[in-house]
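Hey, sorry to bother you again with one of my protein questions. A protein chain has come my way and I'm curious about its shape. I'm sending you its amino acid sequence along with the backbone structure tokens. I owe you a coffee for this, so here goes:
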Amino acid sequence: MTALVPPDVARWKSWAAMIEDFGGTDEMHGSGHWNLEGDPVPTEAGCAAYVAMTELTSTADLDGTRVPSTYFWITDGDGGPEDEVVGFLHLRHLLNDWLLEQGGHIGYAVRPSARRRGHAARALALGVEAAAGLGIERVLVTCDVGNDASRRTIEAGGGVLEDERAGKLRYWIATG
């Protein structure tokens, strides 16, 4: 089972283990780590800073480049407090010019040790449901041209390829 939960400092130990499992930010899509001052620090204080960042950047247009959005953590259960945090999902409520070209409505990543268990596919489906709840009729999801695992996940989730732009495959998924 897989669930989307709001970021919460109460899960800091599981979050910290996930950050260490990623081993850097290169594959932490959907995490929002670029809004932090420096890389995420896998401590309780680091988690608190991360949670505060998700709350601040999800509702405010701080620099003219951000849109309203919702951050989630992907867990390996039904969302209960003992579930392991296995990834990130970021749902953007609108698309600006850059998101339309590159980023899309939904960005997600699953930690290396939890891959190939269906978490990405289930999280993407839950993200599409959340988008529908916001009144978004179709979502744009992108992946790097060479990322076959993400491409297969998006296609299995109903993604219809529109085109390739600047090394990104751009897929649309109907939410209804």
